[in-house]
Fold each of these.
Amino acid sequence: MKKFLSHRLVWPIAALVALIAVNTISRPSFLSITVQNGQLYGSLIDILRNSAPLMLVALGMTLVIATRGIDLSVGAIMAVSGAVALTIIEASPAPGNLGVVMIAIAAAVGSALLLGVWNGFLVSVLGIQPIIATLVLMLAGRGVALLITKGFITTINSDPYQFMAQGYVLGLPFAFYVSIAAVIVVGIVERRTALGMLTEAVGINPEASRLAGVRSRGIIWGAYIASGTLAGMAGILYSSNIMAADANAAGLYIELDAILAVVLGGTSLAGGKFSLAGTVVGVFTIQTLKSTITFLGVPPAVSPVFMAAAVLIVVLLQSRRFRAFFQTAGRSALRPLTRRPDAKVLS
Amino acid sequence: MATLTAERGPVAPTTYRRFLSRHVSWIPVFAAIAILLIMIAGSMAYFPNFQLPRILSSILLDNAYLLVLAVGMTFVILTGGIDLSVGAVMAFTGILCASLLSQGVPVAVAVPAMILIGATIGLLIGVLVQFFDVQPFIASLIGMFLARGLAFVVSLQSIKVDNEGLLWLQSTRFSFAGWYITPTGIIALLTVALAAFVLRFTRFGRTVYAVGGNEQSARLMGLPVVRTKLSVYVISGVCAGLAGIVLTAYSGAGYPLNGVGTELDTIAAVVIGGTLLTGGSGFVLGSMIGVFVYGLIRTIISFSGAEQSWTRITVGALLLVFVVVQRIIVSRSALSK
Amino acid sequence: MTSERSAVVAMRGISISFPGVKALDGVDFTLYPGEVHSLMGENGAGKSTLIKALTGVYGIDSGSIRVQGEERLFRSTADAQAAGIATVYQEVNLCQNLSVGENVMLGNEIRRAGMVDWRATHAAAATALAELGVHIDTRSILASHSIAIQQLVAISRAMVVDTTVLVLDEPTSSLDRGEVEQLFAVVRSLRDRGVAILFVSHFLDQIYEISDRLTVLRNGTLVGEYPIAELSREQLVAKMIGRELGELDAISASAERPIDRSGTPVLKAVSLARKNALEPIDLEVFPGEIVGLAGLLGSGRTELARLIAGADRADQGQVEVGGSPSRLGSPRHALDRGIAFSSEDRRAEGIVGDLTVAENIILGVQARRGALRKLGAAEVQAIVDEYITALGVRPANPNALIRNLSGGNQQKVLLARWLATAPELLILDEPTRGIDVGAKADIQRKVAELAEKGLSVVFISSELEEVLRIAQRVAVLRDRRKIGELATQDVDLDGLVAYIAEGQPETTSSDREKIA
């Protein structure tokens, strides 16, 4: 088992290390960490903090992809979550009160959980394709968020809430602790219970799992609930970072970053075996990549081009045809195969 | 030899039944038309200022770009695929067009160039899907990322268009008895007409339906499946390029943030217009109805003074209803076999 | 008669190998114009492979294919079609969303000035259909017609493109008696027009009704070619099944143990049926009994097994498990009532390829316990070790990925999965197919042992010696109904073969109701 794990993570970790190395060479200050007022600062610390929302979303996305699904609505769920939390805080006479903040966060994450239940219902009970099912929420969710904020970008002033994304505990950003806690909790739930293995079985061979008595509906539904809830938590972090609920910008394109992180980490889009550790590595890789792009002076608006190139490379490497293209040199790989050697031999 | 007219089960070929058996894939379109008519009737009753010719003309004016996009998307969805890049490609070609025009490139060169660029991005997506087994939504996401980033490479801000040749497309109006139409509207309607013709009367068009209905059967029947699947993505790209020109003419400027979320609006319009997401069933005329439904929703919302965000919610809800109903119909027909 | 005409298809010395198995070994096959020819053989015989070689799906490793005297190399299905060979599949590979006329003419629509002329196209389609005696509205959508009509549409499409060889692959599986007769009328008229028809079916009665000649394959080799009049059914079945004596022990001693059939049966199925899959069937299984299901491919054995196992839902009939009526709506229901099912398709329905041997073994147990209560490591180890040893799984490594094991060992792992759920009734569908002799023996021995200890087994196998060796009783199925049951003590292999081929169905209770 350990052999298997290290084999899978070799490439993702190598990619991350290479990226860090490139950064360090071009700006030696990349690795430096300074201490101010008992808090650590530096590029690496920024990466740890800024990657938190993506980490949460990517964890949920990993589970959904493992069941052969996808969740395109996570960005919209983030927007709704932020809108709910900030609206409650803003309406309260005591926005700085810890109790109020806790209630607001609970309501926000609760709403996100309900949205996850909704997605899971569409996919596992009604049997709608995951892309379309989550597309509906992707469309409508931001609209709902805008309604909650009445079309404005709600801003608040609340120290406890600000602490979520901008606070420090023991020198490290609080947001980082949140993301690590999520990784640990999800990891425990998936690997300490049988949920992880059953999820993989459902993704690898749904029919064999059904015949073995696995309750696939519950497992698939649960994956979407998890994805929604984690997206809700990411929404809190995002809005805490800017102390505002921006329904249009919250989590924009984060689903794509999350899918990329999952794929980079070695989990296949076709479902089945998944690796939470791989996703963690993938998230850090993407965050470092973004940091690199910013450092290179590329306007953040243009960074999608680099992301496109990255996704393209990863996806091509995963494509069997592409690998065959290089192995069997050229044209012959492009012609459709007359005989499929692994085809089932019927009588 | 026995003559076979009777089939299993009690079938009396009444006119209704015959109509149904010939045109069953039109039923979702009729549903869309019904919805449109109901909305129009309701609006005319509810809003005192609602003059039908003016409203419909302005819907076409405001949503000509969406209509062009919907035509391209229809082709892709008919084959069972999806193209998430169209909004970004539209923005990219739009701002590139504005940029070229502001540098003195003649309209006659810039416009075809934009269409060509759209076609190229579409080809890239098609190649990824067809030859490298990449899922359509991932492949088109790559296209979307690429186009969006390239749009910002061209310019981080909007670029105004002064070129008379392009602005003419929008500023000219042909009026008749309360109706009016601009050249952009004509372009959009011509695109619809051309697409409808291709889908009905050419072998390529029929192959699109066949591939969407049952790709394996189409292949076994000897149809050019690979070429067809590539072509629909190219067509979608061409439409995105054309939509970029239309949108730039409409707003008088190129803007790199155009079209964020437009692909979703396009898909919604196509699905509401009666095209099945599973492929093989649908019509561009239906997609046009879907675009009008979308435009009417927007109009009604602005008429009633509600916030614009309700548009997306309503469209999302309508899309959901259609998808669920499609699913029920599909699973029912599978069970009855 | 046939030797005077030249063959339209002459396949000589055809050999095709896949990784690990030689599917066809030097097979000859000849088809003459104006005949209906049936290709016969059981699972693994090579029938399907030979047809795929003829229709361009598979390439051949050695041998030659001549069509109308010319040697041909098929690189794709299009090549075969260009040579005049058309196939109508069981699933009717047409486009359900298009009209009848369009399906007939797809790719060959009549055009005028580049545009499709729909009136002319539909007229041409109507003509083609009329030649087969079919008069339907060509503008209607294909999906609005029955499978029988759709097949005729597929056939008329084949005729539009000037087909000389028509392959009909299991065309009658979904047809009722009247539709079969209509189809056969069409087939005969095509034959009289000089078309060569290759007819593939598992329904023995229909084969004898429609065919002129037969070719029999077994284990990838040619057994022989026969005019239909010269081969009785019994002879045919004997040639298809063969008499292979394995190097197996006499487990039959165990089978002769007495069974107490006075108490409550573990399973009692009454009039169990499913549309287009199984006619009403009764079956009873008692504790400690092994009941074999015998019959040719397509006779309904797997369908019956799947109904009992909850893998498919029955349209009619009742099932009692251990005396209490049960609704077996899902595999989960069946497992909860102690019924475990080992599917015949290991790859698609059995192994979870990327998981380890250990995970595959405990999958059933874990699924029953629920996702939250994970089996402890010690518990897993105990279960896994017990079964790896008991069944002799090689390599004896619980952490190996199951997809890297040989077929025989994969089957053992799957068997372990079902046994670990402590079932009352174990249904085994072709458990020894495609595995080496040693593993076969191991599995059969284990099953016999377990039955001695009280486990009930329903055992499906195409190798009749196995069935006779292990089971106390054999239920014989043909053409989706049960013909009868035999005590294995009272019958030998020849007798069983004869019964499968010729045995007359007993009237069951549901039949009696129908006749009345």
Amino acid sequence: MAPVSADPRAAWLIRVGDATLILGHRLSEWLSRAPTLEEDIALANLSLDLIGQTRAFYTRACEIEGGGRDETDLAYRRAERDYRNPLLVEQPNGNFADTIARHLIFSGYAYPLYEKLAHSNDTETAGIATRASREMAYHLRHAGEWIVRLGDGTPQSHDKTQAALDDLWPYVPELFEVDDLDREAAASGFGVDPSTLRDEFDATMGEVIARAALTRPADGFGLHGGKTGRHSEWLGHILAEMQFLQRAYPDARW
Amino acid sequence: MTESPAPLWEVFIRPRTGLAHRHVGSLHAHDAKMALLSARNIYTRRGETLSIWVIPSSAIVASDPGEKDMMFEPTGSKIYRHPTFYEVPDEVGHM
């Protein structure tokens, strides 16, 4: 599998941005469809936070590359196999509990990631991560508070939330998998070794799941491939919608 | 559907140090914590905010619009109650 970028630091950063881009797009699909007006705005805010983070990560990666690519090339002009997001973020929105459970898992992983990345030896990247970690702290709280209310709500909301966690748990291990790119990025002081985030993730999940009167799904079975460009059937559909405008009307402006 | 409608909350925002919390609108939420999170999403999107208050709308006691003549009309003719007869120094700032 060819790397996403000739520069390993850029490749690592693009992978971080791919996760936020795809999840940001997924959340944007809720626009005008959320259960309440309040939550519609909340999900749109979360989506915009993630897309904003993506822009920052991509832009920095392109600066590091020093070539002709820009954020638009990365977001809209790559093929499916060139995206390196974990499978978790491309999973469908499902019902509200599915979306919130997916967001709890992602923010439980991304918050400590950004906190550590805020100490990157690249000051630009550190600055981006510092700002992003504040946003992600809110995402984690928003998702966590909803999980508690859904899990400890009615029997129906409890069952749906438990089912959501059970369905999504196989996508957890991939978030913490380490490959050569991660090792190189961590060793150089630029990036973060994702396996070092697992303890904090487990502590966060344990606390929220207990408050929510839910059962923590068993570890063991893991689905993976996104980090190396082997995606589930969903990513192609996401890209078809996301890239349509740019493909049909390149560099369109309004 | 058997769910009950979420209660209404009034939202107050303090934009800057020195200014009082101002009523900015309302929202629906099932409890205080979610009301606070929603208020952050809905009413603090476009600028800095120092503080948010959320208050159950049911906790607000309002005057009766039907009594406005008795309540408010009499002050209209008492111009001597308006602080318009002296200059406010710039240093005072917000009043």
